[in-house]
Amino acid sequence: MSYTVEGSTGAWEVVVGLEVHAQVVSESKLFSGAATAFGAEPNTQVSLVDAGFPGMLPVPNRECVAQAVRTGLGLGAEIHLWSRFDRKNYFYADLPQGYQISQYAHPVVGEGAVEIELADGARKRVGITRLHLEQDAGKSLHDQHPSKSYIDLNRSGVALMEIVSEPDMRSPEEAGAYLTKLRQIMRYLGTCDGNMDEGSLRADVNVSVRKPGEGFRTRCEVKNVNSIRFVMQAVEAEARRQVEVWEEGGTVRQETRLFDTARGVTRSMRSKEEAHDYRYFPDPDLPPLVLEQGWVEELKAALPELPDARRARYARDFGLSPYDAHVLVLEKETAAYFEEVAHGRDPKLAANWVMGDLFAALNRTRRGIENPPVSARDLGALLDLMGDGTLSGKLAKEVFEAMVETGQAPGAIVEERGLRQVTDTGAIEEAARAVLDGNAGKVAEYRGGKDKLFGFFVGQVMKAMAGKGNPALVNDVLKKLLG
Amino acid sequence: MSLDADTVRRVASLARIRMEPAELARMEAELNGILGWVEQLQAVPTEGVEPMAGGGAVSLRLREDAVADGGKAEAVLANAPDREGAYFGVPKVVE
Q: B68 in contact with A at a CB cutoff of 8 Å?
C-alpha cells in the first residue's frame, strides 16, 4: 500500500530526499587541534583557526578523513582517491571565517546505497548521491538577551559528514527508516555517535509532490530538522502544504523553509533567499586531498560487522526469527549485550530474556542498554542457573526481579533468599502427601475421572513449597501418588 | 563577458560591502577590466590539460588526531567588538 496525500483533485505522491549532517567522531577538529567534546565552557575549545583569525592555516585531521572513508565504505559507496576542499561563502555570526570549508565539486565519497526496512517487512533501496567533509559552524543562543545573540565557537570547525541521498523516498515512514538506518550504520562504524539531542545528526529534508506517473515537480528544502520523528512530521506537513498550493492554482516556489515543531507546520525562511549564491571556489589554503588505495583497503579490512550482516548471521547461525534479529541489531549496544548473554548458551533463550524481561526492566527503570540494571554477565549466570536445574523458569523470573531491584548477582540472591529449586524427591513427596491428605474429597473426585483437578494439586504443592519445587518433579511425584 | 551595474551591486551586497552609486560605476569599470584580462587567458589551448587546483603537484599533508589547541577563550574573545561573559555578543539574528 503506497503512501499518498489525498487532495481535492485526487491522490498525490510524495518525493523525499535527505541531506544529513553527521558530526564525525574524533578527538580534535577537522582543521585545528582544538577539542570536540560536547558541553565544555563557551569558547574554551577554540583555536585561532576556528575563530577565523587572519593568517591561520587549516591542516586536515587524518582521522576525520578516515571516518568519512569508513562511512563511505559502510554505505557501499565509491571512494574518490582525489578530492578537494572548496570555500562556500556566506555571512552569519556563527561562521567567523566568512566561509565554510566544504567539498563541492569533488567530494571524498561518491555513489552508494542503503537498504531500509519498513513496518510491513518490505525492504527498499535508497541511493546515496555523495558524502563530503565540511566544517560545522558555531552555536548561537538567542534567548539570553533582548537584543543580542550570544555566540559560542566550540562547535566551529568540528568535522561534519554531509550525506546526500537520491530523491528515492516516497513517504514519511521511508524518510524515517532511512535516517534510522544511516544512524545505525554510523553508530556501528563508530564514525558518528548519532546523538540527536546533542545535535550530532541533523537533516535537511527535500520534499516535492506529484501526480502518480509525473516527473518531479519543484521541491522545497526544510532545514535543520533534529529528530527522526520531526523528519517524518516535516515531510507530512510540507507535502500537505504543497498539495494545497498546487490545488489552489498556485505554484510551489523553490525555497528554504523551517519546521515549526510546536505548530507542526513549515514556514518560509526569508533570510536565506539571497544566500543561495555561495560563490564556491577551491580553497587556496588546501591542496587536493589525495588518498592511497592501500590505505583505503586497510580501513576496509578493519571495518566492524555491519547491522545487515549481523542480522543475517543471527538468523542463520542462531535460528532467530527475522523480527527478533532485526530488533536485536537495531542498537549496537543491544547486539553486544545479547551476544554476551548468548555466548555458550541457547541463543533463542537468550533472545527471549533480552527482548522480554530485560527490555521490560529497562522501560520500567527508565535506563538505557548502555547502563542496564542487570549486566549481561549476570543475566548469563541466571540462564546457567536455569540450565543446571537450580532455578525453575518461574523462580528465575523472581530472581531476575530481585536482580533489577538490588543489582546483585543471581547466585547471591539465590543463596540469600533460599530460592534454590527443590529437586529432592523426598521433600517433594512429603509436601505432596500432605496436600493429598488434606484434600481427600478432591482426590476422590480426581480418581472418579475429574482429570482437570491435577492442575489444582500441582498448584497446592507448589504453594506449600513456596514456589520452589521443581515443576517436572512435582508432576512426576503427583502422578505416582495419584496413579 | 561583462558585468552590469546590477551584478556589481549584487556582488557587493553578497560580500557585505557598502557602495555608493559613484563607487559602483567605478567598480563596474574596474571589474570589467579584470574580466577582460582573464578573458585573454581563454585563448590559451587547454584541451587535454588537467585542471590545477593549486600551485604545483602538491597534495594535502594530514595531521594526527590529537587535542593540541584551545583553552584560550580570552585570546579568542580579545578582539571582539562586544562580548557577554564568555560569549561573543552580536545583534540578534533569529529566524
A: yes
